[in-house]
UniProtKB/TrEMBL annotation:
<dbReference type="InterPro" id="IPR003439">
    <property type="entry name" value="ABC_transporter-like_ATP-bd"/>
</dbReference>
<protein>
    <submittedName>
        <fullName>ABC transporter ATP-binding protein</fullName>
    </submittedName>
</protein>
<dbReference type="InterPro" id="IPR013611">
    <property type="entry name" value="Transp-assoc_OB_typ2"/>
</dbReference>
<keyword id="KW-0813">Transport</keyword>
<dbReference type="InterPro" id="IPR008995">
    <property type="entry name" value="Mo/tungstate-bd_C_term_dom"/>
</dbReference>
<dbReference type="GO" id="GO:0005524">
    <property type="term" value="F:ATP binding"/>
</dbReference>
<dbReference type="InterPro" id="IPR017871">
    <property type="entry name" value="ABC_transporter-like_CS"/>
</dbReference>
<dbReference type="Pfam" id="PF08402">
    <property type="entry name" value="TOBE_2"/>
</dbReference>
<dbReference type="InterPro" id="IPR050093">
    <property type="entry name" value="ABC_SmlMolc_Importer"/>
</dbReference>
<keyword id="KW-0547">Nucleotide-binding</keyword>
<dbReference type="InterPro" id="IPR003593">
    <property type="entry name" value="AAA+_ATPase"/>
</dbReference>
<keyword id="KW-0067">ATP-binding</keyword>
<feature type="domain" description="ABC transporter">
    <location>
        <begin position="9"/>
        <end position="240"/>
    </location>
</feature>
<dbReference type="InterPro" id="IPR027417">
    <property type="entry name" value="P-loop_NTPase"/>
</dbReference>
<dbReference type="Pfam" id="PF00005">
    <property type="entry name" value="ABC_tran"/>
</dbReference>
Length: 357
């Protein structure tokens, strides 16, 4: 998979309207062959609407979808070489594991012996014992059902697998296990996975790229590290985790003391400086940093090996700081705190970029 390889899926100016409401606003997206793409966004941003169109459960109002050069938005769902794994799994509870896995093959008229051989192979792929073939779905645990649903989705060797929040109903530990299994399965099968989720954490663990949706549009599509370090908008920055924002107007930001080098670098610029809490380090009274901040600690929270502080600056602005526990602030709440970071840790969202988002 390289950036120059032709996309397996091309979404072109896709629009969906429901009466007078526009759920998708002419979106474009290229998905690479073998990629694991996560689509994340708040409730109502259009994730399900998009995936329903991609798998053929709904029609676009405008635009087109191409799979390896063939237009598929005009092809009925059962004729598309794609498969969907739902949150509800949609397994037949009274049938056996084998019957469930073989179902899509049966629909396609594959002979019984061949179906069984494929089902047993898929049990191996999903790391389920082969004797589960005759086990009833009702007798399977939540995690096992999830694996059976995945095996069934892989049964007819689809070009792309779509996932609609498949892990959201599971408990935390099982979810964490299955996240890793899915990532592993993706690597082993080499298939293209398109995965929608509310959970940014899930998206970050598994995917090659994340597409962030907001109100029927993609805000940013990039690998997780890039979105985290260089968000294109305040919406994306906040979606990716806790962040401090400082308004920068013509090179000056109230509450932020700039070194000479930082002043020179930011001279004349206007926008929003974004600084992640964990990019900040404690400074002594004489300590130097490109950007520095002074305030009074108003709250502290233990986060395992780290401590998070909230502090109020002289400007009245609140700031979040996260340091290793060994660097805890003496005196805690009420203590004076001075922190700083390198200019490279402060990302500038230029004014026009956020306004356009
Ligand atoms: N059949 C429909 N008729 C009218 N409006 C709809 C219909 N389906 C979806 N919408 C609207 O389109 C918008 C996008 O909905 P969609 O279900 O795609 O969001 P989502 O990002 O998947 O949300 P969630 O994470 O809550 O599932 C919402 O405002 C929703 O109310």
């Amino acid at each position: 998979m390289t950036d120059s390889s032709p996309p397996i899926l091309r979404i072109n100016a896709l629009t969906k309207t429901f009466d007078d409401f526009t759920a998708l606003h002419g979106i474009n997206l290229n998905v690479r062959d073998g990629e694991f793409l996560a689509i994340v966004g708040p409730s109502g941003s259009g994730k399900t609407t998009l995936i329903r169109i991609l798998v053929g459960m709904d029609e676009p109002s405008d635009g087109a979808v191409w799979l390896r050069g063939t237009r598929i938005d005009v092809v009925p769902a059962n004729k598309r070489p794609t498969c969907m794994v739902f949150q509800s799994l949609a397994l037949f509870p009274h049938r056996s594991v084998g019957q469930n896995i073989e179902f899509p093959l049966k629909l396609r008229g594959v002979a019984p012996a061949e179906r069984k051989a494929r089902a047993l192979e898929l049990l191996d792929t999903l790391r389920l014992p082969r004797d589960y073939y005759s086990k009833r779905i009702q007798q399977c645990s939540g995690g096992e059902k999830q694996r059976v649903a995945l095996a069934r989705a892989l049964a007819f060797d689809p070009e792309i697998l779509f996932f609609d929040e498949p892990l959201s109903a599971l408990d935390y530990r099982l979810r964490k296990t299955l996240e890793k299994e899915l990532k592993d399965l993706h690597r082993r099968t080499g298939k293209t996975f398109i995965y929608i989720t509310h959970s940014l954490e899930e998206a970050m663990v598994m995917s090659d790229r994340i597409a962030i949706m907001k109100a029927g549009r993609f805000e940013q599509i990039a690998p997780a590290e890039e979105i985290y370090a260089r968000p294109v908008s305040k919406f994306v920055a906040e979606f990716m985790g806790e962040v401090n924002f400082f308004d920068l107007v013509k090179g000056a930001a109230p509450g932020v003391a700039l070194s000479a080098a930082a002043s020179a670098a930011l001279a004349g610029q206007t926008g929003t400086l974004t600084i992640r809490p964990e990019s900040l380090r404690k400074l002594t009274a004489e300590g130097v940093a490109d950007l520095s901040f002074e305030g009074i600690v108003t709250a502290e929270y233990l986060l395992g090996s780290r401590i998070q502080y909230r502090m109020t600056l002289a400007t009245g602005q609140e700031m979040i700081v996260e340091v290793l526990r060994e660097n805890a602030v003496e005196g805690g709440i009420g203590a004076a705190l001075r922190v700083g970071c390198d200019l490279s840790a402060a990302h500038l969202i230029a004014e026009a970029a956020d306004a356009a988002a």
